[in-house]
Write a structure and sequence with these properties.
Chain lengths: 209, 209
């Protein structure tokens, strides 16, 4: 056993030289295989504007065309990774920071990430843009607050109006519409099929190889 | 515009019925496409034992066979997601918790994750096992501390011995060898090719469909 040790160490070092510890399988290799660039399409907008609906429709369509694509949203991170965070301003910012960092890891692993987060403030979105740099593509899913309240898919507006949720965006807390969006989808004007088509074309134009 | 709103809302609701918000593209659909189950192989062991070397060798091999596989390690999370954490006991536990939660998100997205973390304490590994449940597969990359110090691929032992790193595992801090490992790879006894072959067979046996 003691005899084999230097040989083993030497083999380890040689192997390290051939396959260095980081970036053995590179992002470029992953993208070449899937046929699309990886990156993050960040969907911002009021709760009920249709972000997740649009994201899921496009995920479905592009997965079926062979893309490595997934949706990251508040529900998927709040339940696990960010279960230690509440909804105070500082915690909401940390929630966005971690979501941005997780999206960055997914982009490195070859995914096209559709990140669906209310992300109501310019400051928070800028923060995520700084994390993701050129991987950050901003889509504003625009809808009148009245229509969001009417849709209220998760019953959150009702709960908020009954006092069950403090600082709910659109009611107690303002939503700052982005002026730097790469695409605006107005779900008050277009039905979901037309909206999903707009998002699909945007994603294909920016990410297909 | 006001005329089209109820129709848009109605279409959104109908679409939601067809493609519900969560789990549109399921883990099962992803696994069926890649031909392998997703999950997490958690490599524990001293710094310099060969965890990353083995992980990278297997990542390379299985990626080339079409697997959706990636390595998650301390370097990839410490630089971004966990850049707010230091190396105190509480912060190291939070580092592991977040790594486990990120691995869980990757498993949901169809990845076979090779997670390479020293994770020196049974308590911390148990914590990650609780997060990942049956997705957690533990591999102990075993090596004598003397050989790790001799290899010292990142120069960390040298820095630690010169006083640059407090509580370094194997020196100031103990490493608790796991008794619940699904596989033990002894890199003091086997060279990297033999070790990588053991890990490769383990992963294929457990995850190939």
């Amino acid at each position: 056993m003691t005899v084999s040790v230097p040989a083993a160490a030497d083999a380890l070092l040689k192997q390290r030289h051939i396959h260095p510890d980081r970036g053995n399988i590179t992002r470029a290799m992953r993208n070449e295989r899937t046929g699309h660039r990886s990156g993050v399409v960040w969907l911002t907008g009021l709760s009920g504007a249709g972000k997740s609906t649009l994201a899921n429709a496009v995920e479905h369509e592009l997965f079926n065309r062979g893309w490595q694509i997934s949706v990251l949203d508040g529900d998927s991170v709040r339940a696990g990774l960010n279960s230690d965070l509440d909804f105070t301003p500082g915690a909401r910012e940390e929630n966005l920071r971690r979501a941005g960092q997780v999206a960055a890891l997914f982009a490195e692993a070859g995914h096209l990430v559709l990140a669906s987060f209310v992300s109501p403030h310019q400051r928070g979105r800028e923060f995520v843009r700084k994390i993701l740099h050129h991987d950050f593509h901003l889509v504003y899913v625009k809808a009148d607050i009245e229509h969001c309240i009417e849709r209220d898919p998760k019953g959150l507006y009702e709960r908020a109006m009954q006092g069950g949720i403090e600082h709910f965006t659109g009611l107690g807390q303002s939503y700052e519409a982005p002026e730097d969006a790469d695409l605006v989808i107005d779900t008050s004007r277009f039905d979901v099929t037309a909206g999903a088509q707009q998002l699909l074309e945007f994603v294909q134009t920016r990410f297909a190889l």
